[in-house]
Design goal:
The protein is α/β, with parallel strands linked by helices. It has two domains: 233 residues, Rossmann fold; 167 residues, Glycogen Phosphorylase B (Rossmann fold, 3-Layer(aba) Sandwich). 41% of the residues lie in helices and 14% in strands. A seven-stranded parallel beta sheet has the order 3-2-1-4-5-6-7, with helices on both faces. It is globular, with a radius of gyration of 22 Å. The chain starts with 26 loop residues before the first strand and ends in an 11-residue tail after the last helix.
Length: 446
């Protein structure tokens, strides 16, 4: 179903100003092709950034495909439903012909049939189709990692676009290809990630782009051919009043916590599970258990690895819970683990640190930039090394007093550097800079 567009008299934008003044509140169409509420950076970024923008007095409408984000009550959601081919319950299903109700549904199923991930392209075209009839309602568009061809159509129609790239998905593609077990699997990954060619074409043509870390900045310049003069760093944030230590909660010395945002090689879940199996074999008296925030999908690589290592009784998946419960889980756990081979930033890392939970994190991607110095604000380990990951976890378990000090220092690092208000304020600066650029429709074709 498609949500009705809120009327201006209710919660919609005010009539267009030409152009908005330097102190006027802005009217933002915020795009996210999927926005899983509690797991995955895109949904969390969407929820908190749009709330912080509303706190600053700006009007934001979120246009999203499934899974839909959970938003502040002041932020309207416009549902632009996809065919939901990659839903949690029947992933990779082929839609029936009766489900194809418009040209964008046909576009999505055609792209899917070719073997590539179709959502970014199809969503961007649905968003363009919606916004071309509402161009006067908004000052600009912010795209959250979609990078579909529809964005270029929006700019040509007169709607300025600010792109947000958390990290280039070309990195995911490279790591998935490297970890493919067979030639056929490698070929399948190459087809599935073919959409990244579109994302590079779009990213290189957007006139202003923001990303979340210096590491991602360098990767985007290299992989997406984005000019350094058009790319800027705006770190993400955390709510330190929500993600905070809970003095009344006792830490469980045998419990560790991690986030299962996606079942891909880049997230390093296999190495964490291997580390858990190694610790349980070498130190059975610890009776170590792992809480994974996320859903275990049937047939996933994580499910196969858990069965292969005999960890069925040692791993618990928790999904669909509130932020408050996640904060409680961090406070219950001896440490949080981010085992990723690469991260463009890592919201789970700063959320764990903000609660005072000792963090064990790899040095993949931007994690050293985020988590800070080894032995001061985190325990740093090598990416892709289950033995080193086990060493880092045992360092926490064997010296709880030192771990508490690192947890406290981690929270201080977060409070000093990151908040969603700071993220929103810096993002607004880039909105206004985007509005000062000459209209894309008047520029010569590139």
């Amino acid at each position: 179903m498609s949500a009705a567009v809120p009327s201006p008299a209710a919660s919609g934008p005010v009539p267009r100003r030409q152009p908005p003044g330097p102190d006027d509140p802005l009217r933002i169409a915020y795009l996210t092709y999927r926005g899983k509420p509690h797991v995955g950076g895109q949904g969390v970024y969407t929820r908190h950034l749009t709330k912080a923008l509303a706190d600053l007095g700006h009007h934001v409408e979120v246009l999203s495909g499934q899974p839909y984000p959970v938003l502040d009550e002041r932020v309207p959601l416009v549902e632009l439903p996809s065919l939901d081919i990659y839903n949690d319950y029947f992933p990779m299903r082929m839609p029936g012909i009766w489900e194809l109700k418009n040209r964008w549904d046909w576009l999505e199923v055609t792209a899917f049939s070719s073997g590539t991930f179709p959502e970014p392209l199809a969503f961007s075209m649905r968003a363009w189709d919606h916004l071309r009839n509402r161009a006067g309602d908004f000052d600009l568009v912010q795209d959250n990692q979609c990078l579909g061809y529809g964005l270029l159509a929006m700019e040509r129609s007169g709607l300025p676009v600010l792109g947000t790239i958390h990290h280039p998905i070309t990195v995911d593609r490279r790591l998935e290809m490297e970890h493919a077990e067979t030639r056929r699997a490698r070929w399948g990954k190459a087809r599935w990630y073919a959409f990244t060619k579109m994302q590079t074409r779009v990213a290189s043509r957007l006139r202003r782009v923001i990303t979340v870390s210096k590491n991602s900045y360098e990767d985007i310049v290299r992989d997406h051919d984005v000019s350094p003069e058009r790319l800027f760093v705006v770190p993400v944030g955390v709510d330190p009043e929500l993600f905070k230590p809970m003095d009344h909660v006792q830490r469980r010395p045998n419990q560790i916590i991690s986030t299962a945002s996606s079942d891909v090689a880049m997230k390093g879940q296999r190495y964490l599970l291997e580390a858990l199996a190694k610790i349980r074999a070498d130190r059975p008296e610890l009776a170590l258990r792992l809480v994974m925030v996320g859903r275990l999908k049937d047939g996933s690589a994580a499910q196969r690895t858990i069965a292969e290592l005999g960890l069925e009784d040692s791993v618990e998946f928790v999904s669909g819970v509130s932020d408050e419960r996640i904060v409680e889980l961090y406070n219950e756990s001896a440490c949080a683990v981010v085992p990723s081979l690469y991260e463009g930033f890592s919201l789970p890392a700063i959320e764990a640190m903000s609660t005072g939970c000792p963090l064990v994190a790899t040095t993949g991607g931007a994690l050293p930039e985020v988590a800070g110095p080894d032995g001061e604000t985190c325990y740093a380990v090598e990416p892709g090394d289950s033995f080193d990951l086990a060493r880092g976890i045992l360092a926490v378990l064997d010296d709880p007093a030192a771990a508490r000090d690192i947890g406290r220092a981690g929270r201080e690092r977060v409070i000093a550097r990151w908040s969603w208000r700071h993220t929103a304020e810096q993002t607004v600066e880039h909105y206004r800079a985007t509005l000062e650029l000459p209209p894309a429709s008047k520029l010569s074709a590139r």
